[in-house]
Task: structure prediction
Amino acid sequence: MDVILLFKILLKRKSETPDDGGILDLIEEYLSDFQAIRLDCYNVKNLFLYKKFSSGPHLCFAGHVDVVPAGDNWQFPPYQAVEDSNYIYGRGAQDMKSGVSAFVQAVKETRKYTGTLSLLLTSDEEGDAKYGTQEVLKYLKVHDLMPDSCIVAEPTCDIIFGDTIKVGRRGSINGLITLHGKQGHAAYPQKAINPIHQISEILHNIAGVNLDNGDEYFAPSKLVITDIRSGMEVTNVTPDSLKMMFNIRNSTKTTQESVKAFIAKEFQNLNYSLSLTQSAYPFITSTDSKIVKDLHNAIYSIMNTVPEYSTAGGTSDARFIAKYGINVIEFGVKNDTIHGVDERTTVDEVVKLYKIFKRLIDTY
Result:
């Protein structure tokens, strides 16, 4: 079997979160010479495969086989892996069955390696991500199977294939501010405390402001207001409270404590309460690390392209891997159709991704 045939087989499996569509059984059988650990948790399917070739570094390839729902109005059926004009269409074509196919085929064909190769696969990345990669990592920690370095084959490239390696990710801080006022009659505003009027006086100091200056790898942490609501949808009563929700995709320079201090400064004379939660923490893998350098060289050798280093985008399971001190990076095909109708990637990108992973295994 070659990488394109494998890719089409995976695309034809409907694996909407947390269903794996039988893909993990297929991969376990395909890599039958690897030791297999199944860690299914609730409805989530997890698989860790590893093979110790000799003493040396442990390199892991990680990814998810689950996809978001396909939706309607596709040019081609989303689970038939139709190839047309060098494109292969299907839900998960970019995110991320292309990446999974590439590294599965690369390790399948590896005959010798100085160290251990492994694969970490889950069916719970597009969902809550509670019982997927996190559960596998807990097991690996207890059983001394942690990798030294890890590549998550998420789609990372922007304009052309090979142009971007994700060397980190921003965190995500979610906030809810409740501004407390005093309800009253609209005809007697002096007898009420209107939180809408209060927020209007300081909103320009909050909305869209940068909380830090960023750095070489991280964009500034921006406070993005996502929702403001207040009142009873009548014209003669002023409200007694206002709720404002916001999100901050934060760099390593902004923390929950610094956000609290910023809000306290802006709301210092107001009666408010603040709730913060953090769904992801920022991380960065040094560009001087061996895994970054070796992947950089592999991309250049196959594509003659010098990749840029980025931390842009949303979150991925790399955030869980980084918490264990593992050098984790991300690299995959272009991401211009992920989660969209007619998601697709090219035959050439999948083949080149497989070749890059093969080259990396040979040199790491």
